[in-house]
Amino acid sequence: MYNMDKGTIKVLIRSETNITSMADHFSGNSDNRWQNYKKTIGRIKKPFQIIIEIEEGSNFPSHVAVDNLQLKHCVRETYIPCEPNHFQCESASCIDRNKVCDIYRDCPEGEDEEQSCDEIPKDARCTFEDGMCNWVSEKRQDSVWTLHSGPTPVDRTGPTVDNTFKNVTGKYMWARFHPKRTQLGHLAVMNSAIFEPPPLYHYAVQSNFYNTCQV
Ligand SMILES: [Ca+2]
Ligand SMILES: [Ca+2]
Description:
Helix content: under 10%
InterPro entries: ConA-like_dom_sf, LDL_receptor-like_sf, LDLR_class-A_CS, LDrepeatLR_classA_rpt, MAM_dom, MAM_domain-containing
Structural class: mainly beta
Largest sheet: 3 strands, antiparallel
Radius of gyration: 27 Å
Keywords: Disulfide bond
Number of strands: 9
Strand content: 15-25%
Bound molecules: calcium ion
Number of domains: 3
Oligomer: single chain
Number of helices: 0
Protein name: MAM and LDL-receptor class A domain-containing protein 1-like
């Protein structure tokens, strides 16, 4: 780019229905040298065009050059069936069945967390982001479980981040003992909702209920 300090570059995506969306928008410069530019445009399921739109700088002459343009990672992967104890993601990759409905997104599109997860008993999965999922702290004089996020207020008593998002906004349950009343052997107890017994065939790999009650 040259004399493009006040110019702008837009990268747009136009779909087959003529709807255009902005993929990127950035200011120009006057570096007058080749630079690498990368932009992830994500997975687009219908035919599309990429449009590069330049708005010239206020000085004359402005110029922008483009070369070695590549769309990368766009080739559909060769379909290879998964092993029997693996789950097929839509992207054709395979993940271990144990990773289906385990809260974490393991498939690129996260479908392992949608696939038959509603078969799991209500409240059997809980990230504690939307409450306690009917887990209840037992009333005790010297201890209590509380819903918490970020570092615990007492030094050396708990994690600094939750285990779902790994950041200070994520919530988790924290067992807190009364600092003056605690004695060795005292308990902080949290009770779940009552779950119906799982189907007897939940351990069969081919069943939709496979591993559904693994905690
Ligand atoms: Ca998962
Ligand atoms: Ca959490």
